[in-house]
User: Fold this.
Amino acid sequence: MSADAPHRLGVAGIARALDRRELSSAELTQHLLARIAAHEHLGAFLAVDADAALAAARDADARRARGDATALTGVPIAHKDVFVTRDLPTTAGSKMLAGYRSPFDATVVARLGTGVPGEGPGAGAVTLGKLNCDEFAMGSANENSAFGPARNPWDSARVPGGSSGGSAAAVAARLLPAATGTDTGGSIRQPASFCGVTGIKPTYGVCSRYGMIAFASSLDQAGVLARSAEDCALLLSAMSGFDARDSTSAQRAPQDFHAELLRRRDGATAGRPLAGLRIGLPREFFPAALAADVGGAVRAALAVFERLGATLVDVSLPRTELSIPVYYIIAPAEASSNLSRFDGVRYGHRAAQYEDLVDMYKKTRAEGFGPEVKRRIMIGTYVLSHGYYDAYYLQAQKLRRMIADDFRQCFAQCDVVAGPVAPTVAWRLGEGADDPVKAYLADIFTLPASLAGLPGMSVPAGFATQTDGRQLPVGLQLIGNHFQEGVLLQAAHAFQQATDFHRRAPAEAGA
Assistant:
């Protein structure tokens, strides 16, 4: 590793270099800030505070010198712009919150940084800035951001995926080793797949939602995008744990996911580290409409899992197709309720001219919200309205329970479910602008796990060669049973020890 290319290190590599005094956090932070400035054309960042980041890095170096550091102390990261932060603006990618500054940090931000009051010191990671996202996390391409789209480092004419597109693009372009994201219906896994990075959405409730700007409260979950499963495990360990301020937080102690990732399976050997692992392949995840290059990469990756000792099992998730209408009833319904608070009264955008209170509400929301947010608010309001609640929302909730039951039966036959993350590789910017339903359909493989509240990962699994000769990443999705993140991380880590897809970087990343 050359001294002038520390951006090539992941979280675990940086932690080792900092421990051995081969690198200081201040030096690394300065290097990455310069890279961020040189890659502004990717649109990955919405806000950067260089002075605050360098001050935090120097504090981290002092903490390491005192010998009271964690693995993440001094490691530079950034946060998706739906996590509120005291020292940086929080916009959720919307004009409605342009310039807004929160009086407190989200729990995820605090635990990774300086710490939550009453919990002791945090992990000590250095925050570089806030990352671009679809407005209020609504989208599959990061084209719905009010501040312009993020771009895919593998091909800047293509989308990075959404809604955590800025996080995925920044990690892929080696602007930082890891970033936080949120996943409502696939918003960590899909951009991770499109950008060739590793992403994990834990079980609903594992990470606190306190300070996360809500889209759909029963679905939103914080997670991580990083280079490898090991890097994800390190961050997820620091982020997880019960939070009394979040009524949806699972009452579970923080877990050491890194230790679970390294745990040796019963009966495993050096050549077959996944011996005994049963991987279920739902036939519904391999339809005829699946792009051949995506399907080929996924099948080749599954063959590697077999060589590592896993057993492939045919299973079925018969209500997979129903996850799309179910999600696009429940999520907009919850969004219409959550976004009612943005009315121009207490914070955020307010129309400059209006005649009375009702006119102020109308003009503020018309000016502040973008087209996709308005579309989902209208859908949600409709399905919750009198005469339609029973026909749409209530039926969707019943089907949601049935989708969860399908997974329950599936996990009686396997330990992990696997398949593609998305039906295609990243599409071109603007390609789906006139057909929002096309983007909705791209979520078909990620939505079921979200509706069931299950943990899911995207693991770099290969590349698809395009007609212009470019290679675009393909992700393999792994879904586990509730609170089985350790099993997913362990399987992904074994796969990454046997392959190098997660180490490959786009030309944008440089040397």
Remarks:
- Residues 107 and 366 are 31 Å apart (CA to CA).
- The mean pLDDT is 96.
- The chain is about 35% helix and 15% strand.
- The radius of gyration is 22 Å.
